[in-house]
Please model this.
Amino acid sequence: MYRNSVLLVLASLGIGNAQLNPNQGAAMMRFACSQLVVERLDPLVSPGVIGSPHVHQIVGGNSFNASMAPVAYDPPSRSTCTSCTFSEDFSNYWTAALYYKARNGTFKRVGQFENGGLVQNGGITVYYIPPYDGVSNVTAFRPGFRMLAGNPTLRSTAGESRGICHRCFEGDNFTPFGGAPCTGNDTSALPDHFCAGGIRTTVTFPTCWDGVNLDSPDHQSHVAYSTIPFEPYYEPLATRPYTAAQERGKCPEGFPVKLPQLMYEIMWETRPFNKKELWNEDGSQPFVYAMGDATGHGQHGDYIFGWKDDSLQRAINARCRNDKCKELKSQSNEAAMSCTVPQTMKEDVEGNEWLEELPGGVMVN
Model:
């Protein structure tokens, strides 16, 4: 079942399906990053703070800490291991944790399940996707590069962030997988009904860069989404002839440098809570993100680049596929899963004995 789901999603993104574009050579890197640590740290938004406002699940290089000074802090030289498949990737990737809120007001962190044949312990599935035309090169992220996708304060569709979506898997074992992210029945809000196969969150980052700034005060202004926010974008050839410019989308003025599409997938194990008596008395969904967001609109993702030397650029240029790449060094699943760090902000974030409140005293809103 997992294998079939992988083939479905690859086809939905234009990989391994020649009917989408017989001339394309598109490929994408898709690999597992297991859980490094779950805690209240955020060196991007709350640098130097031990006990940032809400809980994140963090993956990647083990040099992650509260104080990672821009540019001066070099993850590849400071990390001794990574929780990701490719052992040259010491980047850090993180998203907000998801909690189940019981009717009595207590909380338990929602677990995760493996994603489409990848072996990982919680964490995130990471994608790097080059241009769909199979020819054009892009500029890999530079040392010191950072960015944030989404808005943790968002609680409605007004001003909705692009690229943040939830997919409700209506069948067991998350079938059918469906099409590209943020298509079909995907919503920026958390699903409002039982999801027999669990819930997937996708966080998709901008692909246009100003070419100058490695970061910006809001961690977003130095990058922008293209006119077509997802890479690759596709339509059946019967409805529109393929052209590279249309497929890739156009970057807005002031953002001339094309970046690879970075995307996260998080597979939430919500199936144990698919019982009427475990949902709210009014029938509304019971899941809450760590920042107190019961809507789902505020989900977000953070990124600190940390690939060693020019390894990412070489892999992108070589059009590496999935989690196998002759341009990169890989490590075993066991080695990746064994790369963990202890909490800096030591507190119960799991709710094994149930939490009376969200970590940090965050109120649900």
In short: The two ends are 38 Å apart (CA to CA). The chain has one domain: 26-364. Residues 179 and 241 are 20 Å apart (CA to CA). The helical segments are 2-12, 75-78, 244-248, 311-317, 333-338.
